[in-house]
Each structure stands twice: as structure tokens, then as C-alpha cells.
Specification:
Oligomer: single chain
Strand content: 15-25%
Number of strands: 40
Number of helices: 25
């Protein structure tokens, strides 16, 4: 009963993963009016499960992996229900029954229930310390257990997710062993030589890999905790944590309970219809022609067909998907397409690279690219179309030399959204797009997993030529520049991110620009804005610098690097009390307490009773100084006094990017002031002021702005420049990019113009007056009740 036109009762999409989100977007793109309800069993809005390893690496919480911000659902009129598990369906009436007993009626239902971790029937799997690796709650548990001193982690399974878990645990200082049943890693994607190279890479990282080991039992003591693994043959491995990652099992329980035809997955036809009228299935829970797909690209292909089916529209049937993936494993780029083995093949190996083309029946059938992934799109097109290949070795070489201009028009560049080269080029030639970001917004190429973005840019540049220079958009989705958004903020007196989003639409599509918008709102309102923490990065939300194990670094401010015995005692006591894993003197002459738990941050700030050093923020950082004239026999200027003045005058102010400063008391330059964002060097008769230095991956000597005779004028000049930078730099643009872009002469014309510099200094004073030390404010009363809970909360 798939009628022509939208279902009158709307569509319920059951499952809030990539498949559910994609289907909701496809439905809305086809019909602006159909009612859509997206039902998520997890307590999170849809997030990108493919990027779970970013959570394991200790980066932001699940919120950072969200596929869309809250505003998108409001704008697109998609009802989003989170933490609502569906307990039953009645296809004949379209009734959905929730776990709490409530019911809702719909005109059509889509199942996107995904998959669950596959757990083997091993004795001891219920012991404490055993976990799967599939969701945020598993990442949180692994991160916590692997960070314990002396932790020994065993990963059962040498596929992609298992290897990601192993690498993440290793980054936390755990000793890691990967146990795999077969004779090579990632056997579904790699042949023997490629798997051997991957094995070498993991062993070089310090991971112990044991191939052809069949795990028989999880061992433990009377306390119920894991103590080790036992293998076939009797060998044992001692460990404290066991991660099981041997594959996935389609989540078909709801489909089976509903009476749908279920084999390994919920059986669907070429229109993604299940055995019940009005119900479709997509993603990892669906089985088409005997195949269940566990990759991202088939999800998008299925959702396009399912959306047409649900809306009663004609469209191309689903004909199955080519199994392929572009990955990064142990820091190595990897592409696996189609068959890893075949009746004929050619392979080329070099230092750190392996390229292979598989041929079956004289046609391209598969490819492995490890380390060197040039020609991915071309080989993908050749394998997808079954191109005849007489010389596999020559075809590999041709693919490596191929440019965007050589790529066939029909070659699919973005597999996630099914966008070919011709569509990308047409967006420029016929659609009026001038830049890669505009093309991505229009065609959606590059907006899925993102791996095709370099090729999209290359095609656009090839077609558009010089016209493809990328504007510095604050919000690429809406093609809004910083100047355009700022003008609206000033004109309407907007004082919060949500107010700007409501007025201009900024940040409502993907939400990636919200941190930049948060800074702009605060800067334009001289810090008299309405703070909304959800728009900030995790570091700014908790006022500490997150580390790779999920703990935090706390750096109290020590003006000009000078401290007192009392401050040192407090620092030492706090380090002991809160279990700092390391206490380090930083490059900026401060003391860093590393390894502090998130929940302990307010307490450690209270005990330290020192100002924040802002070592975590896009802000004015500490000022490095030498001893100067106080004790140094070479000093010609009081560097400590000037550095202290700079810190006290500028502290607590946010900037487009971090600002590092230094003051050297003589031209010997012990404080390295000539490679700082703002640097001052004492010279005979005064102070030399420098701007735009860098000492990172790119070293840039700071430009000399001027030489002044006294400290007061040096402060005026530097503060004027700082405010000018705060108001005119793009978000995340460091001074060493900003100064050359604007030009030293323009900066001089501003700094030494009494009217312009006076206005800048007045706005600086307003902003500074409204700035505050977050440690003092939030150590006693957090801005949000859940602000210092763990990054990832397990589902209820």
C-alpha cells in the first residue's frame, strides 16, 4: 500500500543513526510538507558513529559528532524524539508503541534500527571490565579503564573498529594486545601483503598483535573482574580490560516482533519495502538480495530509494552497492574497493605504500590502496562500471597520474551522496557556484564522510579557474561573511548566538560555525553579551585544556612567570590532592597540572585560588619574560614589569585565535619575543615592538612595528593593535597570517592615528571592564548543572 503522494499521517523514522538522519533529509528534500518524526532510542540526537574514534582520542563529547544542530530540526520541521525506544509496531494501522506504553499513529514507517555489537558465546563475558566497542558509552568506559595506571587492554578482533579501539587505548598509556582469529588483520578489506604492512605499522606503535588465536574464555577472580583470556590450546593472556570487536549483528528485534520477514536482516526488495505494506527498512538492519551492508555509502543510496517509495514516487530501484571504504588506520590512508583477491591482479609496493588492482573476467573487480591512495575516484569508477582491463599494472599507473581534468564525467566523486564529477562541474558552469564550499552546499558532495573534499575542490578549481578563490565565510552554509553577520548584529543589537541564528540563520544548518559566532557576538558587544555554552568548544565550556585521555590540564596564571612560595605550596598540594599525572613547567614559564578529572575542576580551582592562565582558550595567553634588569647583568629594560603590565591589562580577553606574547629585556632575546604574536625587545633608549611572529610548524620572524621610548607608549601601541586584531581577524586566524594579510602599513596607519586608535582603545576598555576570571566565578557556581559531568553519559 504505497500510495502516490505523501502519507497523510506522516512518516515515522525509527532509529536515530546516520540512516535515520539521511532518510529524514531525503524525505524533506523531496516534499517540504510531509510530516516527519525521527525517533532515537539513544539519549542523543543523531551523531556520526563513523567518527567515534575521535571521542576515544579524548576530544569533545558526543555533541561534537552531531550530524545536525537543534536548529536544523526546527527549521526543517522534523520532530526529533530522543531517548524514546519503540517497543512495537502495527503495520496495518501505522501505530507505533513506545517502551513507556504511549502510542502514535503514522501513515508510513521506516525502520533504521542499525546494528548491535556481535558478541561471541564466551564464558566470562559478563565480568567487569569486558565491553563492546560500538557507541559513546563504550568509548567512555574504555577511555576510563585504559587510563588507569598499568592498565592492560586486550582487544578481541582485528577489524577496523578493533584496531581503532587498540590505538585509542594505547594513546592512554595502556599496554595493548590485539587478538585475531585469522591469519591477517582486516581480512575482509586487505590481502596478505597489505595486511602485513598494517601489522608492521601497529607493532611499530607498540601494539602486541597475536594472529590465529581463538579466544575460549574470559578469566577472572572472585571479585568478578577480568584477569585475562584463555585461548584454544591452553595459552593465557593477562589483562584488566577486554574489548570485544568482532563485527556487528543487524538489530532486527523490532522487525521480527512485528512479523516482518527476517533472515540475517529485515528482508527488503528493490524499493526497500519490507514484507509489510507501509513499512520500509534502510541501513544496517536491512537485507537486500541476501546482503547486509555495514558501510556508510550504501546507506545514502538506500535512503534515496526509500524516500521515493515512502512518498509514492517513481524512481530508480536499488540495485545493491559496491562494497568499498576509505579509511585511516594507524595514521595510514587506506582504500579498499570490491574484491581483495581475484583470478588476476597487479600490485606495486614501495616504502610505506601498497597499490593493487584486481581483475576478474578481464574487468576491474577490486583495488587496495594503502599509504598512496592517488586515483581512488578513477579506480572506483572503473570497478563500478566493470571496465575492461588488459594491463592491470598500466591501469594502476594511469590512475595514479590522473588529475581532476582527466576524470570521466560519470565518475562518482562523492559516494555518500551519489554526486558525480559532471554534477559538480555543472554547479559551477550552470548553477552559478564560484567556490568549493558553494558547490558542496548545492550538490552535498563532501558533506557526508568528507573524504572526497580534496577532489571536489580540485574539480571546482579546474572548472572555475581563478574565480574559485574561497571567500572567508563565517557561515559557509549560508554564504555569510564575518562582515555581513557583524553588520546585522550591530544594526539589530543582537546579543547572543541564538538571537543571531534566529535573525540570520547563521549556524542552523550544520552548526560548525557556532564557536566563531560565539566569539563575534562577545566581541561586538564588548563582553556584555548573553553567554550560551552550547556554542563553545569543550575547553571554553569547562575552562581547562582537554588531553588525549579525557582528563584536563590546569594552568594557573603567574604574571611574567613570577610566583611566590605560597603559590607553589598551593600548586603542590592541589597536584597531590587531585592526582595530577604530571606537573610541568610550560614553554611560557608557567606550571601546568595535567591529568585532572573533569569533575574535580571546580574544586582544584578553589584550592589553587589563583587566576586562570587561559591556557585552554582562543584568548590572550600568558606573557613570557626574561629576568630583565632585576638580576641580569645584560638587561637594559625591566622586562618583568612590562610583561606583568601586559598580562594584567589583557587577561581574561578572548581573541580570534590564541595570542602568545613575550618581553625580552635586551637584544639577547632570552624570552624569544621575536617569534611571538606580540613581542617587545628592550633596546638602548626604549622598546622595539614586533607583531605576527611564529615558532610552530612554520617559523616567522615578527615584523617590527615601531620603536618607542617608554613603557607606557609600548603598552598603548600593543593594546591598540590587539583590539584591532580582535575586531578584524577571521576566527582562528593567527596574527602571523593576519599581519601579512592586512599589511604592516595599514596597521601602522591605525595605531598612530589618534582618532582611530582612540576609538579602538575605548572599545578595548569596555570589553576589559566586562571580562572576568571564569575560575573565580564558576569554581563555586557552575554555569550549567551538568557542566562538569563526564563527557559521555551512558544511555538510561
Amino acid at each position: 500500500m504505497y500510495r502516490s503522494g505523501a502519507p497523510s499521517g506522516g512518516v515515522a523514522v525509527v532509529g536515530g543513526g546516520i540512516a535515520g538522519q539521511s532518510l529524514a533529509e531525503e524525505l524533506r528534500a523531496r516534499d517540504p510538507e510531509v510530516a516527519i518524526t525521527l525517533i532515537c532510542g539513544e539519549p542523543f540526537a543523531p551523531y556520526d558513529r563513523v567518527r567515534l574514534s575521535e571521542l576515544l582520542a579524548g576530544e569533545d563529547g558526543c555533541e561534537a559528532l552531531r550530524l545536525r544542530p537543534d536548529e536544523w530540526y526546527a527549521d526543517e520541521r522534523v520532530e526529533l524524539l530522543t531517548g524514546r525506544r519503540v517497543a512495537g509496531l502495527d503495520p496495518t494501522t501505522g501505530t507505533v508503541t513506545f517502551a513507556d506504553g504511549q502510542t502514535r499513529g503514522f501513515g508510513a514507517i521506516a525502520l533504521a534500527t542499525g546494528s548491535d555489537p556481535l558478541l561471541p558465546p564466551l564464558p566470562g563475558l559478563d565480568r567487569e571490565g569486558v565491553m563492546a566497542y560500538r557507541g559513546p558509552e563504550h568509548v567512555d568506559g574504555l577511555r576510563r579503564l585504559a587510563s588507569a595506571d598499568g592498565a592492560r587492554v586486550a582487544v578481541v578482533g582485528g577489524g577496523l573498529l578493533g584496531l581503532e579501539a587498540a590505538r585509542g587505548a594505547l594513546a592512554r598509556g595502556a599496554s595493548v594486545t590485539v587478538v585475531h582469529l585469522v591469519d591477517r588483520l582486516m581480512e575482509r578489506q586487505l590481502d596478505g601483503p597489505a595486511a602485513g604492512m598494517l601489522l608492521d605499522a601497529f607493532e611499530a606503535l607498540g601494539v602486541d598483535v597475536r594472529l590465529e588465536h581463538a579466544t575460549e574464555a574470559v578469566l577472572g577472580g572472585d571479585d568478578g573482574r577480568v584477569r585475562g583470556l584463555r585461548f584454544a590450546g591452553g595459552d593465557e593472556l593477562a589483562c584488566d580490560v577486554v574489548v570485544v570487536s568482532i563485527g556487528i549483528r543487524p538489530n532486527v528485534a523490532l522487525g521480527r516482533d512485528t512479523g516482518l520477514e527476517v533472515e540475517r536482516g529485515i528482508v527488503v526488495d528493490d524499493r526497500l519495502r519490507t514484507s509489510a505494506p507501509g513499512v520500509v527498512a534502510v541501513g544496517e538492519c536491512a537485507q537486500h538480495e541476501g546482503t547486509v551492508y555495514g558501510l556508510v555509502a550504501p546507506i545514502f543510496e538506500q535512503c534515496r530509494v526509500a524516500a521515493d517509495t515512502l512518498l509514492g514516487r517513481d524512481g530508480d530501484p536499488y540495485a545493491g552497492s559496491l562494497q568499498w571504504a576509505k579509511l585511516k588506520v594507524a595514521g595510514i590512508d587506506l582504500v579498499s574497493i570490491g574484491s581483495a583477491e581475484g583470478e588476476g591482479s597487479a600490485a606495486v609496493a614501495g616504502p610505506g605504500s601498497y597499490r593493487k588492482l584486481v581483475v576478474a573476467g578481464g574487468r576491474a573487480a577490486g583495488a587496495i590502496l594503502l599509504g598512496d591512495i592517488r586515483g581512488t575516484e578513477d579506480l572506483l569508477h572503473a570497478i563500478r562500471t566493470g571496465e575492461e582491463v588488459a594491463d592491470p599494472l598500466g591501469r594502476l599507473a594511469d590512475a595514479a597520474a590522473l588529475t581532476a581534468a582527466d576524470l570521466p564525467d560519470a565518475a562518482q566523486v562523492c559516494d555518500c551522496n551519489g554526486v558525480c564529477k559532471q554534477a559538480i562541474a555543472a554547479a559551477v558552469t550552470d548553477g552559478g557556484c564560484a567556490t568549493p564550499r558553494e558547490v558542496m552546499a548545492v550538490t552535498r558532495a563532501g558533506t557526508g564522510c568528507g573524504s572526497c573534499k580534496p577532489m571536489v575542490r580540485e574539480i571546482v578549481l579546474d572548472v572555475a579557474g581563478d574565480a574559485a578563490d574561497e571567500p572567508a565565510y563565517l557561515c559557509p552554509c549560508r554564504k555569510q561573511t564575518r562582515e555581513e553577520v557583524a553588520a546585522r548584529v550591530r544594526a539589530d543589537g543582537l546579543d547572543s548566538v541564538s538571537a543571531v541564528s534566529a535573525a540570520c540563520g547563521t549556524g542552523r544548518q550544520c552548526g560548525a560555525c557556532k564557536p566563531a559566532l560565539a566569539y563575534l557576538v562577545s566581541e561586538l558587544n564588548d563582553n556584555r553579551h548573553r553567554e550560551e555554552r552550547h556554542a563553545r568548544y569543550i575547553n571554553d565550556r569547562v575552562h581547562a585544556n582537554i588531553q588525549n585521555d579525557g582528563t584536563f590540564s590546569v594552568v594557573p596564571r603567574m604574571y611574567a612567570g613570577v610566583t611566590t612560595p605560597d603559590e607553589l605550596r598551593r600548586i603542590a598540594d592541589a597536584a597531590d590532592r587531585y592526582g595530577a599525572r604530571m606537573v610541568k613547567v610550560t614553554g611560557g614559564q608557567r606550571i601546568d597540572l595535567l591529568g585532572i578529572a573533569k569533575a574535580d575542576l571546580p574544586a582544584i580551582w578553589r584550592d589553587l585560588d589563583m587566576p586562570s592562565g587561559f591556557a585552554y582558550a582562543k584568548a590572550v595567553r600568558t606573557v613570557k619574560s626574561c629576568v630583565g634588569t632585576d638580576l641580569c647583568r645584560f638587561g637594559v629594560g625591566d622586562s618583568i614589569a612590562l610583561a606583568t603590565d601586559m598580562e594584567r591589562s589583557w587577561e581574561h580577553l578572548h581573541t580570534p585565535a590564541k595570542v602568545k606574547s613575550g618581553v625580552s629585556g635586551c637584544p639577547r632575546n632570552c624570552a624569544e619575543a621575536t617569534v611571538k604574536d606580540i613581542g617587545v625587545v628592550a633596546v638602548e633608549g626604549g622598546w622595539q615592538v614586533r607583531l605576527g611572529g611564529a615558532a610552530g610548524a612554520t617559523v616567522r620572524e615578527a615584523d617590527v612595528l615601531c620603536t618607542v621610548t617608554d613603557k607606557r607608549e609600548a603598552m598603548r601601541v600593543m593594546t591598540t593593535f590587539l583590539q584591532y586584531y580582535r575586531e578584524h581577524a577571521d576566527y582562528l586566524e593567527r596574527t602571523y597570517d593576519f599581519v601579512p594579510r592586512v599589511g604592516l602599513e595599514e596597521i601602522r596607519s591605525v595605531v598612530f592615528d589618534p582618532q582611530r586608535s582612540g576609538a579602538l582603545l575605548e572599545r578595548f576598555r569596555l570589553a576589559k571592564a566586562a571580562a572576568f576570571d571564569p575560575w573565580a566565578a564558576e569554581a563555586r557556581e557552575p554555569a550549567h548543572p551538568t557542566q562538569y559531568l563526564e563527557l559521555v553519559q551512558a544511555p538510561a
